[in-house]
Amino acid sequence: MLSSDNVLAKLNLAWNFLIHVLKVPFRQKGEGARDFLERFGQEGLSPWSVRDKERIASFSRCINCGLCDAACASVGVLPRQEFPGPSMLLTTLTRSFPRIDPPSWDLALCEGCRQCESFCPTRVPIVQALEFIREKSQGSARATVPG
Prior knowledge:
Helix content is about 50%, strand content about 0%. It is an all-alpha fold. It folds into two domains: about 45 residues; about 90 residues, Orthogonal Bundle (Fumarate Reductase Iron-sulfur Protein, Chain B, domain 2).
């Protein structure tokens, strides 16, 4: 037997579905995408292309072994608060998407020497990942409706 709460929940669901169905023919084309991206940008998020998703998959191969930190010329010389090292950047930022908001880290401190990549057992393109993070963190406020 159905309880009164269960019946009310199903009626509420049916009512909201009916309202949704009745609104669909009156929506303007592209209205949903425009609203979505407007809110997306306000929250500091950046839209991703198919290419971006492919790149993230290659960056996410990081197993956090720390070998890249051992090879990095900047690690050990700079305070970890300024530049935490490649492994911290990869594991923290690639696994915290879609919001890219690097704390106070100066990503320009990476010299781009690619020593870290030569020690990576999973061949993560670390310098490309840092470039991607820079690009997305700068573009997060400029979310636009795709053409």
